[in-house]
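Q: What does the assembled structure look like for these inputs?
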Amino acid sequence: MAILVVGSVAFDSIETPHGKVDHCLGGAATHFSLAASYFTDVRVIAVVGKDFSAENEAVMTRRGIDTRGLERADGLSFHWTGAYSGNMDEAKTLGTDLNVFANFEPKIPEAYKDTEYLFLANIDPVLQARVRSQMPKVKMVCGDTMNYWIADHRANLEKVMRELNVLLINDGEVRMLAGEKNLVVAAEKVLAMGPKTLVVKHGEYGATAFFSERSFGGGLKARHPFRAPALPLAEVVDPTGAGDSFAGGFYGYLASQPELTPAVFRKAMFYGGVMGSFAVERFGTERLQNVTREEIDARFKLFQEISHLDYTGA
Amino acid sequence: MAILVVGSVAFDSIETPHGKVDHCLGGAATHFSLAASYFTDVRVIAVVGKDFSAENEAVMTRRGIDTRGLERADGLSFHWTGAYSGNMDEAKTLGTDLNVFANFEPKIPEAYKDTEYLFLANIDPVLQARVRSQMPKVKMVCGDTMNYWIADHRANLEKVMRELNVLLINDGEVRMLAGEKNLVVAAEKVLAMGPKTLVVKHGEYGATAFFSERSFGGGLKARHPFRAPALPLAEVVDPTGAGDSFAGGFYGYLASQPELTPAVFRKAMFYGGVMGSFAVERFGTERLQNVTREEIDARFKLFQEISHLDYTGA
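A:
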């Protein structure tokens, strides 16, 4: 089934130990859409400026992404400037030019309104809620957020969280949201805020899913958390968008399956790691534009090989 | 087959958010021996002071640990004072009283000299090398170290590393040893220093094994690293000795197996995580003294459940 994603489509200027790029295509919705497009149909809602070219849009349409929800406003597109050094586990933001994104008011095309899978990328929770409320047929909602909304827009964020099937955030964000250092206790507190399931991303160490009694339908239960590995990589060219690519692989696979079961959820966690591992191999979205389904499946097997006791390929 | 471990047997005074203990039995060799004792015979070489009681020794002998190598010197036993707060991922050392450990000169009892599996816990690499050189029948050597030896005793440490089948250290130590931030590149550099296999402990995120062409005999190869999970725990009472308990479970299982294969190595990584997860449930060695083999096997299954795609128990 198709996924509707609302979030940023932007230009990124990035410096890492492997080089420097200026104004390459980026943004959470872009990384997410490209990663998810290998699994299911994707519809995108975002705002871009006059500097967003036909070639920029073609990057998405070539992957079959429906861009009818891409609004063109007067002015320049959202532009982020950042740098990574050392272990590259954290970006240093050097500049955030919101430009047309400052007045982003998501508009949902009629043709999108029947979408059953909604992904709310990291934007103002007020906008996340507004989009959610206009999607009456939605079956599953997955969302992201960041420290800024957790610290200063708490009430709005909590309203969105109550509607989420899956909240996908990182270690620091879970601990901040819960006001608790222990990951398991923090996860329980966050689940009590509303999300049926919580996926915590640990960067180079993988991700952990924490389930509640509400995670699955039909009496299905997951008794314990599930940990998916990340692939140890000798070269991380650009970590920008790794988390959004994880989300795209994860949610794209979920939406492609007829039923949500614990087994399907586990595979989705692996596909999330797979797409994240591709994303960081090149600057911007380059690798996500040209990966093949065969490469994705081979890497999925590699994720099994590096984490399963009974893998027989070695 | 039996394991010989040389390292510290000490008293620890520890404060964590869960309480405070004074002079409880600790030390790397103690945690290691107790954890390994559930899998194979263990022989220990260490020095203790006059304050080391018959009851302290009985903690080890009750688990069948051979304590004939426990030397009693004039003076007090090694005493470490430390505290944990917040996420408890790092100990704050408040005091290190080496006492009799300052002049530790390991003596190997005749009855120990046929031991085939040697574990060199974190002590001066000069002593590690001296013990190694007196064990002509040794078949496998596994070792640990710490930042202090890496920074200031490099040449001695490098000599020991060349003799190791497995080097077991943590993330920060691997990066420090290699002078390299990327984990995979750092691991390759460390393997080039001599250890046939490198196991990197990631604390609450598990551990990763990096293999070389020399990891296994008989033409066996592991094509990729292996990642073992750690159990997400809602309550960590005392992290002291978690790494040594990991080493004990890991090496104890390896030594209990007739042959070293990639499949055996993977299971050993899981048993390492299992024993580490028990160790932190209580202060000091309390939990390692009374865990049962049934509990160990049940937790091993739990480790599979939280990490394997095809686990059918959920």
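Chain B touches chain A through 46 residues (CB under 8 Å).
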